[in-house]
Automatic annotation (TrEMBL):
Alphabetical GO biological process terms: tRNA wobble base 5-methoxycarbonylmethyl-2-thiouridinylation
Name of this chain's protein: Elongator complex protein 1
Molecular-function annotations in GO: tRNA binding
Region Disordered, annotated ranges: 550-573
């Protein structure tokens, strides 16, 4: 290799054309460039290739203008540079340092590696990240090699979850394979193995501070305090013999790592008042702040004492366990119930109390009231039943519409015949409100014994086959004439009216949409009647204004996000108002048309069922007329889709199917509010007419 007028060659091949000097190291080639940088690349094909392609792969550093390489010390990290003034300077390039560090770590010379890391300020995480498997299997050797407890504490305190070979030293470790299993919970696992290795040493008491550091890094302050507590106990037993690290020194070190108020709360949570006092004494706390509180706690019964501490520390689960364990439980029952209610600890409390105890029943009732407030009546009924409040449980079963459980409970409560009869009527009303007409009819026929009302309920729910069967099986064929046939006629009249209204409204909305679109088109024409070209600046400005309007609308919608859902729905209705001349009337009309199409499509099964019953009673012409009305409406809607949802709307991108058969009015409004765009599919009713083949051709 040679250098000619800033051109650097290797075997006659030009590698770079901006080189001012170069030198060889045992592992690297070093170059200085006209850009005043020092490049370090490995002496291999990849390293040379990186010089030819990209000089900035984490191996460069800035140097003084005009500096030239003199020599790189082999098998070392020192590189000598000559400055323009003639003086010599020694530097340690990072790639050479990392190479030497890797050599030390591969040969498990952890003491020399640690010295190098501290002297050259290399991130100590590299001790583990260089090769996690080797480190984990040689933790004992690492601890014995480093020896210094201060160094071990420093290493543990600097641990981070990130892998430095993937971040700050990624350029040097480009070929390293990633093993996520070894870096998961890195801080916790490294602290664990290092502490285990320390405790296995004969002189483990020397390493008390690293042990405490490991607990702190694992967020286990209680364990750290427990270590200090153990040392205090050993000091009391040892007499005049002083340990290597006293409990006072250990506590002072712990207070350096952790906020004193946090440590005070942890000590208090260990229920050790002596330890609390020691921690508080080492802090700046005024004894008047904590001594009265501690003295008051000392006077309490042990479990209640712990309950008060847990409540003070907001550890409500633990507080519940402690107050539930208090002797003379009834004395603290009201306070326990208040804790359960305030912090919603119902499920935990049910596991703590015996089912035969009064407390269990009280908790069950509390939980039931909570479930009732959350509108979960069925679950509330179960809890009321557990709590022995059968009357309220019965009310909840009624609200849930579970007539079987309600009547079972009424039987348990030994209701009289008149009370059961009254309850059945209440249940029927509730079931009818929930549109469970079949269930209501079953109660009327089986429990009340009123077949006529049962058939009337089935007719109300348009359950024609069931109504006919009930009438015939109960030997009341007269109900067919008095209830079922009139019900069929009423339903026929209702559906015919709905189809006529849908046809009329569809035509009206479609005509109005055409007028609105025509009016909008006029705004895009000039005074002479010439249409503005698509690439016109005016067209572009208009688009920008519309985009701005949509963006501002989104912003306004976002600003109102804190409002109640009721106000939000009201705003959406105003936004897409059908009032003539409203800003988004065309979009409101499209939504209304979609709503009509969807509702008409949903009538298909209802019409099919009614036509079947009409045919059963030989009312063929009425069935054919109803079916014809539906087919005509569906065909009219199908034929108008292309006219309503134009190609511009249909081809508007990912929103294309917003008006498809699975869409709802709310989803359309949401789509508009989020994107300012509406579109549809042209295949909404493609299968509606084809599937409607109940009647033969001569009747359709």
């Amino acid at each position: 290799m040679y250098l000619v007028i800033f051109r650097f060659y290797i075997n006659t091949k030009e590698i770079a054309n901006n080189v001012t000097s170069y030198t060889l190291h045992s592992e690297f080639i070093l170059l200085t460039t006209l850009q005043h940088t020092l490049l370090c690349s490995r002496l291999d094909l990849d390293g040379i290739g990186s010089l030819a392609s990209d000089h900035n792969l984490g191996t460069s550093r800035r140097i003084e203008r005009g500096a030239r390489l003199v020599i790189a010390v082999p098998c070392d990290t020192r590189v000598i540079l000559q400055m323009p003034r003639g003086n010599l300077e020694c530097i340690h390039p990072r790639p050479l340092l990392l190479q030497l560090a890797a050599t030390y770590l591969d040969s498990r010379e952890y003491h020399r590696a640690f010295e190098l890391f501290r002297k050259q300020r290399i991130n100590l995480n590299l001790l583990y990240d260089h090769n996690p498997e080797v480190f984990s299997s040689n933790t004992g050797h690492f601890v014995r090699s480093v020896k210094d407890p201060t160094w071990l504490s420093l290493f543990l305190s600097e641990l981070q979850e990130m892998d430095v070979t993937r971040t700050m030293y990624a350029g040097f470790y480009a070929k390293k394979s990633e093993d996520k299993s070894l870096t998961k919970n890195k801080v916790h696992s490294v602290c664990e193995v290092v502490r285990t290795a320390i405790l296995a040493l004969d002189d483990s008491e020397t390493y008390l501070l690293p042990v405490i550091t490991s607990h702190v890094r694992q967020q286990s302050l209680a364990a750290a305090l427990d270590v200090i507590k153990t040392v205090r106990e050993q000091e009391d037993k040892a007499g005049e013999r002083k340990p290597v690290v006293s409990s006072g020194e250990a506590l002072k070190y712990l207070l350096y790592l952790v906020d004193v108020n946090e440590l005070y709360d942890v000590a208090l949570g260990m229920y050790d008042f002596e330890l609390v006092t020691v921690v508080a004494a080492k802090s700046q706390k005024d004894p008047k702040e904590y001594l009265p509180f501690l003295n008051q706690l000392r006077k309490m019964e042990p479990h209640y004492q712990r309950y008060c501490i847990d409540k003070h520390l907001k550890r409500f689960d633990s507080a519940l366990h402690n107050i539930a364990s208090c002797s003379g439980n009834n004395q603290y029952l009201e306070e326990c119930l208040t804790l359960i209610r305030d912090h919603k600890l119902y499920t935990q409390a049910l596991l703590l109390f015996d089912r035969s105890s009064p407390a269990y029943g009280r908790v069950s009732v509390l939980y039931a009231e909570h479930l009732l407030d959350a509108r979960r009546p069925y679950e509330a009924a179960l809890m009321f039943q557990r709590g022995g409040d059968l009357s309220r449980a019965l009310q909840c079963y009624q609200a849930a519409g579970d007539w079987r459980q309600a009547l079972t409970l009424a039987n348990t409560m030994q209701y009289s015949e008149s009370q059961v009869h009254e309850l059945c009527h209440l249940l029927v009303e509730r079931l009818a409100e929930q549109h469970q007409y079949g269930e209501a009819a079953q109660v009327l026929s089986q429990l009340v014994g009123d077949l006529e009302e049962s058939v009337a309920m089935l007719v109300r729910g348009h359950m024609w086959p069931q109504a006919t069967w009930s009438a015939l099986s109960g030997q009341r064929s007269d109900l067919i004439e008095t209830h079922i046939k009139p019900g069929l006629s009423d339903h026929l009249e209702l559906l015919t009216s709905q189809l006529a209204t849908a046809q009329e409204q569809f035509g009206m909305y479609k005509a109005r949409l055409a007028v609105v679109r025509s009016t909008q088109q006029l705004h895009f024409e000039d005074k002479e009647g010439n249409t503005i070209p698509a690439d016109s600046d005016l067209f572009s400005d208009t688009s920008s204004v519309m985009t701005s309007t949509i963006a501002s609308s989104r912003s306004r919608l976002s600003d109102r996000s804190h409002r109640s859902s009721k106000n939000r729905r009201k705003h959406e209705r105003k936004l897409l108002s059908l009032k003539e001349g409203s800003p988004h009337e065309d979009l409101a009309l499209i939504r209304a048309l979609h709503d009509l199409v969807t509702r008409t499509d949903h009538l298909r099964d209802e019409v099919r069922c009614l036509c079947t019953e009409l045919l059963r009673f030989h009312r063929d012409k009425e069935a054919a007329s109803l079916q014809r009305d539906l087919v005509n409406v569906l065909k009219n809607m199908q034929g108008s889709l292309a006219e309503i949802w134009t190609s511009e709307l249909a081809g508007s991108g990912p929103q294309q199917n917003v008006f498809g058969p699975e869409a709802t009015v709310n989803s359309i409004t949401a789509k508009f509010a989020s994107s300012g765009n509406l579109s549809t599919s042209h295949t909404l009713l493609g299968s509606c007419v084809a599937r409607f083949t109940l009647l033969p051709d001569e009747f359709r």
